Amino acid sequence: xxxxxxxxxxxxxxxxxxxxxxxxxxxxxxxxxxxxxxxxxxxxxxxxxxxxxxxxxxxxxxxxxxxxxxxxxxxxxxxxxxxxxxxxxxxxxxxxxxxxxxxxxxxxxxxxxxxxxxxxxxxxxxxxxxxxxxxxxxxxxxxxxxxxxxxxxxxxxxxxxxxxxxxxxxxxxxxxxxxxxx
Length: 182
Description:
By secondary structure, this protein is an alpha/beta fold. The chain has helices at 3-9, 27-32, 48-70, 117-130, 160-178; strands spanning 21-23, 76-77, 81-85, 88-92, 96-97, 102-106, 134-139, 149-153.
C-alpha cells in the first residue's frame, strides 16, 4: 500500500459510523444506493486513484484556508451544525461559511460547467442548516488543473429537502431493522 493510501486509510478515530448520526456528504451515496444499511459499517480501503483524488482536494482546500486567513477574510472553516430529523441527527459541515454565503469545495478529475446531481443534496442541506446561499467551488477547473476556483451558485430546488428527509428516514428505519442490537 502506497504512502498516499496509508494516509487516507488511516483510522483517526473521528469518523466512526453510528446508527442515528448521518452526514450531509453521504446523502447522494444513500440516494444512489452505494451506501446501504447492509454495507453501512463496512470499511472498504481507498485505492491509489481515490487517495490521490482525496489528497488533491485536501491540499487545495488547505491552501484556500491559508489564503483566507492571511488576507483576514472573515469566515468559519468547517463549522458543524446538526439537524434533528425524527429520532436521528443529520450532521452538516460545509467547508467555508462567510457572512452572506457558504462555499462547498470539490476537486473533481474533470472540468465542470454546472453542478453535478451527485452534490446537490449536500448543497441543499448546507443551505437549510446555515440559512444562506450556497456555492459550489470547483478547484482546478481548467485544462492544466492549476490552482483556481470556479464557483457555481446552487439554486434551491422545490421539494429536494422533503425528498432528502424521506430518503434519510427510510434509510434510518432500515438500518434499525438490519442492526436491532445497536
